[in-house]
Amino acid sequence: MRVRRLSLITLSIFWSLFLPLSSCFAAKNEIPLKEGAWNITLQINPPTSDFLPIVQMLCLSQTEPVPIPAKKEGCRLLTKEIEGNTVFWVAECREKEFVTRSVGNATYDSNKVEGAVQTMTSATGKETEMRTYTLTGKRQGNCR
User: Fold this and answer.
1) What digits encode the pLDDT tens for the residues 101-117?
2) In the chain, fewer beta carbons within 10 Å around the N or the C end?
3) DSSP 4-30
4) 55 belongs to a structural domain
5) Residue 26 · residue 20 · CB < 8 Å
6) Residue span of the structural domain in which 58 resides
7) Is 85 helix (H, G, I), strand (E, B) or coil?
8) Rounded to whole angstroms, how far apart are CA atoms 44 and 55?
9) Distance (Å, whole) CA 103 – CA 90
10) Tell me: the pLDDT tens digits for 73-83?
């Protein structure tokens, strides 16, 4: 009887310690992205006077953390992967004569983001253009 009681006490202590701990590990893998409206800037790298930075306001969330306008007509997100604080993606935009593929990454820290995007633009009968951009951004508030 004494052994059985000791086992029950040990088991109850184990479960009272294990369950809260296991819920920490079972939690959904989320990046430290505060959802809302984000002001995203893409600056060509290295900076030149010919290319002004591309600035856009995007609504970002845990389900849509990629800081590019993939909802634009002719654009689609091909892959998205999350590792720790960083989102990696491949996207493609098709216009009449051009196809632009972008490969990028964005590392979040609550209200700010930093990363890089490499684009490859090809057009029929023209040489493929490759560009590298530095990506920065800050959360501005709630989405409208």
Assistant:
1) 999 999 999 899 999 99
2) N
3) HHHHHHHHHHHHHHHHHHHHHHHS---
4) yes
5) no
6) 36-141
7) coil
8) 12
9) 5
10) 889 999 999 99
